[in-house]
Amino acid sequence: MNDTPLFLKPVFQERIWGGTALRDSFGYEIPSEITGECWAISAHPNGLSLIENGEFQGKSLKEVWDNHHELFGNYKREKFPLLTKVLDANEDLSVQVHPNDDYANEHENGEYGKTECWYIIDCDQDAELVFGHHVKTKEEVREMIQSGNWERFLRKVPIKPGDFFYVPSGTVHALCKGTLVLETQQSSDTTYRVYDYDRVDDQGSKRELHLEKAMSVINALHVDANIAPKLENREGVAVTTFVQNDFFTVYKWDVNGEATFTQNQSFMLVSIIDGEGTLLKGSEGYTVRKGSNFILPYRYGEFILTGNMKLIVSHP
Ligand code: ZN
User: Fold this and answer.
1) In angstroms, what is the span from residue 93 Cα to ligand 1's centroid?
2) Tens-place pLDDT, residues 248-305
3) Fold annotation for 230-315
4) Could you tell me which of 20, 65, 117, 239 has the fewest CB atoms within 10 Å of its CB?
């Protein structure tokens, strides 16, 4: 039995579209006023979370994954499969697309593909997302991109806090200004940028676009994934199951009072996005609050959460 959760220290990434919400809303110490991404639970080499407690304190999640695979139920993948981020889109993100596993493996040095999903933690009143496109064939996709006909090509959808979006690889997408999101994704850092609003950085240069690769992987026809969140009310908690597929299962737990759970997966990723409370297991207790991120290892078993808090939980 593995009785100790792995608490993780997040890694911050500066982005031209970033802001200060990760400090203002989450209380994190951020490196600058353009902090766009918090890699909350990451074993990806571009931003490794470190373990904060227990016998693995100071080691990276990747080291623990590589050398103590039994903590993850000897999960069948070579690399840690998931990555949890909190994103502060203070400005529009570039319009982008990600490849699937096969394409990424072949063209990006064995990287995983990137299917992702978003839980909207907070957003401006009139916030929206770029989510999919309006055309129907590969030829039209090429035509629209080559002519830069973004108004006609890109589909925009209005959003509000609490919304959830499933974004399979091949979906053209972008977070827009004024959006704070928790993202659960395959552990990959491969993004093909389609359109960056012709922005320039401090040095006056534009970020690179990846049009050929993007046009190869964009789905010819955009269809919203048929996901219907399921809600289950139990003593002390409302559990929403947002999505369940080959890549990940993602839940929201609204804890109010005291609730009992069982960790019977290979392992479980937990992020607290609102409130505070306690994680109890036997005689061990941990105070947890908005901004806490941890992994419950293999055979962690039954545990209790108390308090008033909102968590996003996932497992592969
Ligand atoms: Zn993306």
Assistant:
1) 9
2) 999 999 999 999 999 999 999 999 999 999 999 988 899 999 999 999 999 999 999 9
3) Jelly Rolls (2.60.120)
4) 20
Answer yes or no: are the C-beta atoms of 286 and 279 closer than 8 Å: yes
For 163-209, the DSSP string reads: -EEEE-TT--EEE-SSEEEEEEEES----EEEE-TT---TTS-PPPP
Q: How far is the CA of 216 from the centre of ligand 1 (A)?
A: 16
- What is residue 11's DSSP assignment? E
218 CA distance to ligand 1 middle (Å): 13
DSSP character at residue 86: E
Distance 129 CA to ligand 1 centre (A): 11
Please list the ranges in the chain whose pLDDT falls under 70. 1
- CATH number at 6-217: 2.60.120.10
Q: How far apart are CA 63 and CA 160, in angstroms?
A: 38
Alpha carbon of 15 to ligand 1 centroid (Å): 14
> Active-site residue numbers?
193
The reported pLDDT for the residue numbered 1 is: 56
Domain residue ranges of the chain, discontinuous segments joined by +: 6-217, 230-315
- For residues 211 and 191, the answer to whether their CB atoms sit within 8 Å is no
> For position 227, what pLDDT does the model report?
84
| Model confidence, pTM | 0.95
What single-letter amino acid sits at 217? V
